[in-house]
Design a protein that fits this description.
The structure is a single chain. About 50% of the residues lie in helices and about 10% in strands. The protein is of the alpha/beta class. It has four domains: about 10-100 and about 425-530, P-loop containing nucleotide triphosphate hydrolases (Rossmann fold, 3-Layer(aba) Sandwich); about 115-175 and about 335-365; about 185-320, no CATH class; about 535-735, no CATH class. The longest helix has 27 residues, at about 340-365.
Length: about 750
């Protein structure tokens, strides 16, 4: 059933959901149906996806650390109604579930994960009971291939799977009175030699049976009429039915016409054994048996069968109808597990309709899978395999169902070997995407309105396939029935979505940054945080904005290096980023003013004309003032890029100032100053317990700041992904070193 959703606007109200204390936001899908959210590590991305996954699977979210907190997980459409779970799909970054070895028999079933999981749940339940009940047949029958043999024995029935065969033959099993002591394959051998012998000696066996029947008819103990027989087999059954002596202890007696009243079990057994011996010791019957035995003697393949009939000649009486005897044998063997067999039949009966519905879904979904495979093979390149849909036998129902086969070139490849030994992690992720594409295609074909929550789907892909995913998401954004919230903690991917999928006025409202405040999470338009194209904004404000002036230092420094090499302007800007003394005409770090930056900035940027109130202010003072303002700001987890760059510069200057004041070697350092200076500090104090905490702090400085304040650090992505609270804390720790 396709539920309709009114998704012009989507209102979220999440509280106490997997670490999200509070998140309230209204998404406007009236003009564009895709939203991208950048959330740094630990902000809310995984929690957001998990909450929606709970909504999609009809579960209730919780706060994992404090389950006493009451969760709220409202996802309301335009009418104020909660979105139906069937209209929500959460696409995870990756799932190993599709490669689970426990699913080997059903992995290739053409169905979505939810349907496959349901199938697997039923399959495991049936298989568990089956494994608890049937294996005892190996000992009872002596056949290690009992399931295959049962299917073969009853192949004439319309029902083709073993559960339905059991259901059809259970009446005969319950009424069976036979007991056989031979091993199944000794009489019903795989090569069919016994059956062949029966065919060849049919006339001799018929004579044996006729002679037996003649003896039974003339016996005063046994009897045979057109409709009934009481022969040696029936006599054994009678004796077995009175196993133990309870019947006679209770005072009951049996009246036998040829032996009078019988009042004990022993007496009954003696009489039956005596009467059976009379029949099989008859000279005529013994002669016929000898002829059969001699014929068997000549065939080495029938040694086991020969021993069976020598031990129990009555077996020969049933061989004239070999297939019926085979069925009777299984009725007898199955009789010993009758109770368990009935449980298995009942369980299968209760699950059959669900299984049939799942199989039908797989058949109905074949066209969606064909479309998904076509899409997959046309978008994702470099895969070592191709895919083809073929029919396979279902693991429970034994029906032919569409399934996926793998080919390398024209050669079919075993799925397990491919997944275990051939595919790289990236290729396994691509195969996972095939399952995602199928889910999307099947919903497209049904015209089902869907909200997709897409959690870092491109994570860990190589670039050629990462961009294939972006293009696929772009196509997805144009489907009239689909709405997408794309989550990522990869800023490069976020920026790619921003530029390739979002466009025009939609960028401002559909490209969001998650910011973690003290008690809630806010989703802020990315353009308000100046992270998509920061350099343009900084350049425009560099004449009168102290924070932007500082943030531009690494940018301008690198531009000068690219244009003119490491000239004096380059060196001056280097002195602003590292604790340096006077070198020639290049000022010491502590003496550089705002005015000193105008000439280098003018050489690299057009339109530079500083309008600062006090251009003689020392740059180190500007940096400290800006850091104080940043640390005093209410926002504890802002993604404002210039704030982080200013903090990183200030941290490194403070750290170098402390290290220069302590190291023995005061020789100037050219290139990689922070790292080399830290090396000197470690050499001097690595074994000094008093410097243990300082070493830890400086190690953090060395790791966290150098790559974050250079233009060539992949567009500042590392520092964007780092929480500003980490930098604030590190600045505080570095400042403590000098106290």
């Amino acid at each position: 059933m396709n539920h309709k959703i009114n998704m012009v606007k989507l209102t979220l109200k999440f509280e106490n959901c997997y670490g999200i204390k509070k998140l309230e936001h209204e998404f406007d899908f009236s003009n564009f149906k895709t939203v991208a959210i950048y959330a740094g590590n630990g902000i809310m991305k995984t929690s957001f996806a998990k909450t929606f996954n709970d909504l999609a699977t009809k579960k209730t979210p919780c706060d994992q650390l404090d389950e006493s907190l009451i969760p709220t997980s409202d996802a309301l459409d335009e009418s104020g109604a909660q979105i139906n779970y069937e209209n929500i799909v959460v696409i995870k970054p990756y799932s190993e579930d599709i490669f689970s070895k426990s699913e080997d028999k059903i992995l290739t079933l053409l169905a979505n994960k939810e349907t496959r999981d349901k199938y697997l749940e039923i399959y495991k339940e049936i298989e568990a009971l089956k494994k608890a009940i049937l294996p005892s047949l190996k000992k009872i029958s002596g056949s290690s291939n009992y399931e295959e043999e049962i299917l073969s024995t009853f192949s004439h029935l319309e029902k083709q799977n073993i559960f339905e065969i059991f259901d059809q033959i259970i009446p005969q099993v319950k009424s069976s009175k036979d007991t056989f002591n031979f091993k199944y394959n000794e009489v019903f051998d795989k090569g069919g030699k016994v059956k062949e012998f029966v065919g060849e000696k049919y006339e001799l066996l018929t004579k044996y049976l006729e002679k037996y029947n003649d003896l039974i008819t003339k016996s005063s103990f046994f009897t045979k009429t057109e409709d009934n027989i009481f022969g040696t087999t029936e006599a054994k059954d009678l004796n077995k039915s009175l196993e133990g002596n309870e019947y006679f202890i209770a005072g009951h007696e049996l009246l036998l016409k040829s032996h009078g009243n019988i009042s004990s079990k022993k007496r009954l057994t003696d009489i039956i054994e005596e009467e059976i011996a009379k029949v099989f010791n008859d000279d005529g019957l013994k002669q016929l048996f000898k002829e059969i035995d001699n014929a068997l003697e000549k065939n080495k393949d029938l040694v086991a069968f020969k021993k069976v009939i020598e031990k129990d000649p009555s077996i020969l009486l049933r061989l004239s109808d070999y297939e019926k005897f085979r069925q009777d044998a299984w009725y007898s063997f199955l009789k010993e597990i009758e109770v368990g067999l009935e449980q298995l039949i009942k369980l299968y009966g209760s699950k059959k309709s669900e299984l049939e519905a799942i199989i039908q879904q797989a058949k109905d979904g074949q066209s969606a899978w064909e479309a998904a495979i076509y899409e997959f093979e046309n978008r994702f390149v470099g895969m070592p395999f191709t895919l083809k849909i073929n029919n396979k036998e279902d693991a429970v129902l034994n029906e032919q169902t569409p399934a996926v086969d793998f080919f390398c070139g024209k050669k079919k490849v075993d799925r397990k070997k491919l997944l275990d030994d051939v595919l790289s992690q990236g290729e396994r992720r691509a195969f996972y995407l095939l399952n995602v594409i199928f889910e999307i295609k099947s919903r497209q074909m049904r015209g089902q309105e869907t909200l997709f929550v897409i959690d870092d789907i491109a994570d860990s892909f190589d670039y050629k396939n990462k961009y294939a995913i972006v293009e696929y998401l772009k196509d997805l954004s144009n489907d009239e029935n689909f709405y997408s919230i794309i989550l990522t903690h990869n800023f490069d991917f976020f920026r790619t979505i921003h530029t390739r999928i979002l466009y025009g006025p939609h960028r401002g409202t559909h490209s969001l940054i998650a910011e973690k405040l003290a008690d809630e999470i806010k989703l802020i338009p990315a353009e308000e945080r100046n992270v998509i194209a920061p350099f343009e904004n900084w350049r425009q404000n560099v004449n009168d904005n102290e924070k932007h002036l500082i943030a531009c230092i690494p940018f301008v420094r690198n531009l000068i290096e690219f244009k003119e090499g490491q000239n004096d302007d380059y060196k001056l800007l280097t002195h602003t980023l590292h604790k340096k003394t006077l070198v020639g005409t290049v000022k010491a770090t502590v003496d550089i003013t705002i005015a000193d930056l105008q000439a280098p900035y003018k050489s690299a940027l057009s339109g530079v004309a500083f309008r600062f109130t006090d251009t003689n202010k020392k740059l180190v003072d500007v940096i400290e003032e800006q850091i104080t303002a940043i640390k005093d700001a209410e926002n504890a987890n802002s993604v404002v890029l210039e704030d982080k760059i200013v903090l990183a510069i200030g941290i490194r200057l403070k750290a170098e100032e402390y290290m220069w004041s302590n190291v023995t070697n005061q020789d100037p350092i050219n290139g990689s100053q922070t790292g080399q200076l830290f090396g000197r500090y470690k050499k001097d104090f690595k074994n000094n317990e008093a410097h243990k905490e300082a070493l830890k702090t400086l190690e953090s400085v060395n790791i966290m700041t150098p790559e974050n304040i250079h233009l060539n650090s992949f567009m500042y992505e590392p520092i964007l992904d780092m929480g500003i609270d980490e930098l604030k804390r590190l600045h505080t720790e570095v400042c403590k070193l000098s106290t």
